């Protein structure tokens, strides 16, 4: 895949926001996770993924967008697996947020068939340090059903992402 092809297929979720994959934009992820959390939901059967970039001080803003996407797309009964990724400064951020709060308050209350990914299902390359920042990032391709963080990092090295790439397009 070329850089241009990737940019056509990629949604990068900004801080305090959530996004969902579409047929035209099957790759989703977020970057600049310093003290923030990256929330990832994936329905393997329907090939749908939702990603959110939740700030450490107040994850409610991003998580409310996640719930809005779930309800707008009638996904309450989808079989999502979920993973909450730590930011680069996870120890410093622990005082500001709790993964359990996000799981219990947002995921389990709004999705009837949600379950966590098993650790062995998440490759060690799923969450990587941003080469330019003290921050983590992840990217996932619903067409292949795998994390593509390394490939996205490689193709986007030395590039400036336009705002257009970051705009989520709903189903």
Please tag this protein with its features.
171 residues; alpha+beta; five-stranded mixed β-sheet; 6 helices; 28% helix; globular
Structure, described:
With 171 residues, the chain is of the alpha+beta class. Helix content is 28%, strand content 26%. The chain has helices at residues 3-9, 60-72, 90-93, 99-110, 149-156, 163-166; strands at 10-13, 18-20, 27-33, 37-43, 48-54, 81-85, 115-116, 128-129, 136-141, 146-147. It is globular.
Number of helices: 6
Major beta sheet, specifics?
5 strands, mixed
Record field, number of beta strands: 10
Oligomer: single chain
Summarize this entry quickly.
This protein is α+β, with helices and mostly antiparallel strands. The protein is 28% helix and 26% strand.
